[in-house]
């Protein structure tokens, strides 16, 4: 986090008001347009008068619209109004620069994608640096698109997802991103871009935010499932751990590097400099090579080769599945999380990896019944990281609603 302006005012009053407003916004987003003022009062435990005051404030800021619910024939009582969060009025940008793709999404506070630009091509080293400049150019186009479609919209923040180890204390820096061929890379142009637009920039590990983007329909949802190990296979293999709806990120925000757990110390060299990491066997780059496929082959091409009994594809999937089973058994024994979600390029392979994983879980799980471990494919894996980065920005703003409602920042695209 680079900059976080705080609302002023008497501390106690501001805190209670903020918390109440956060509850109202959370219920409004959860209800997806199907909640009346009376139901909001019940859901939040606030008085009708407080709800009315907040609703007037949110309506005046253009963030909420109310429409009269049609009364069922024969029903008694006055028609109730239903409140809806106005689409596109407040939104965050989610940007992902990965080794094989560039994604820029505008996501509004309900979690809906309102504009997008996605490019699939290889980026590494200098190309990745150029990709960052290109991402910023494309972000301007996305902002202009949102401004044209939603003239009263306001950008609230920018979240950026990158496949690497992040700098500490929210510094705009990547310490090491082997698959982008980056070490100690400063993201000053991105920070300057955010500052020019009057908003904060947050940098996230790609797998951590993808685990949220892939499992949360809105920024206030509890992920489904609530606790799981996430695998993000794009070029290398990232990972994240979700426990009871919260990412477990460790002391320095660097937990979850499942791709660099050693499966075979005498195995091939990994991009991280060690040998025999899980990434060598299961990372999309390694898996394609071992299966005898080209560097741009899709997961479906691998599945076809595997289904046709191609010996190289069979051997590559067998080895990758066994390696994954070994690592998952160890991880589940260690962190007590009963589900695995497979995202990104690897997602379509979930079904053919399952049998290998299950075999290792049966042998190695100490305190769990392997039948109780869910092994699931993530939906829409391609957009998960950029969407998750935007959701993180929005969730943070919902906890400080005065900043979200305020109209002091410049409108989108300006
Ligand atoms: Zn490694």
UniProtKB/TrEMBL annotation:
InterPro entries in alphabetical order: ATPase_NBD, ROK, WH-like_DNA-bd_sf, WH_DNA-bd_sf
Database matches in Gene3D superfamilies: 3.30.420.40, Winged helix-like DNA-binding domain superfamily/Winged helix DNA-binding domain (1.10.10.10)
- Coiled coil where? none
Pfam families in the record: HTH_24, ROK
| Organism superkingdom | Bacteria
Q: Which family does it belong to?
A: Belongs to the ROK (NagC/XylR) family.
Q: What is this protein called?
A: ROK family transcriptional regulator
């Amino acid at each position: 986090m680079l900059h976080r302006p705080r609302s002023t005012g008497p501390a106690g009053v501001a805190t209670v008001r903020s918390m109440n407003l956060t509850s109202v916004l959370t219920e409004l987003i959860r209800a997806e347009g199907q909640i009346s003022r009376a139901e909001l009062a019940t859901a939040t435990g606030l008085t009708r008068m407080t709800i009315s005051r907040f609703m007037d404030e949110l309506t005046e800021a253009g963030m909420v619209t109310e429409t009269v619910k049609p009364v069922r024939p024969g029903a008694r009582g006055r028609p109730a109004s239903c409140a809806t969060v106005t689409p596109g009025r407040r939104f965050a940008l989610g940007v992902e620069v990965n080794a094989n793709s560039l994604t820029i999404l505008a996501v509004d506070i309900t979690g809906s994608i309102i504009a997008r630009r996605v490019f699939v091509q290889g980026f590494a080293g200098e190309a990745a640096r150029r990709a960052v400049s290109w991402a910023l150019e494309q972000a301007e186009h996305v902002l202009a698109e949102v401004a044209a479609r939603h003239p009263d919209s306001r950008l609230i923040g920018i979240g950026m997802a990158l496949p690497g180890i992040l700098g500490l204390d929210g510094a705009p820096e990547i310490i090491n991103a082997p698959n982008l061929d980056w070490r100690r890379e400063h993201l000053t142009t991105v920070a300057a871009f955010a500052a020019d637009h009057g908003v904060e920039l947050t940098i996230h590990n790609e797998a951590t935010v993808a685990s949220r983007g892939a499992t949360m329909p809105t920024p206030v949802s509890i992920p489904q499932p609530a606790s799981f190990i996430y695998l993000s296979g794009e070029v290398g293999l990232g990972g994240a751990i979700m426990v009871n709806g919260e990412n477990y990120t460790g002391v320095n925000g660097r937990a979850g590097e499942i791709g660099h757990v050693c499966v075979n110390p005498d195995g091939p060299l990994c991009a991280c400099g060690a040998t025999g990491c899980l990434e060598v066997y299961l990372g999309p780059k390694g898996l394609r090579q071992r299966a005898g496929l080209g560097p741009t082959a899709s997961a479906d091409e691998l599945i076809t080769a595997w289904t046709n009994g191609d010996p190289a594809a069979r051997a590559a999937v067998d080895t990758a599945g066994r390696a994954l089973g070994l690592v998952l058994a160890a991880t589940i024994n260690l962190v007590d999380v009963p589900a695995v979600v497979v995202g990104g390029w690897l997602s379509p392979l979930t079904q053919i990896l399952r049998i290998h994983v299950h075999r290792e879980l049966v042998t190695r799980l100490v305190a769990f019944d392997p039948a109780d471990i869910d092994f699931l494919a993530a939906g829409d894996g391609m957009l998960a990281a950029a969407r998750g980065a935007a959701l993180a920005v929005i969730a943070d703003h919902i906890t400080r609603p005065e900043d979200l409602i305020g109209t002091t920042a410049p409108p989108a695209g300006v």
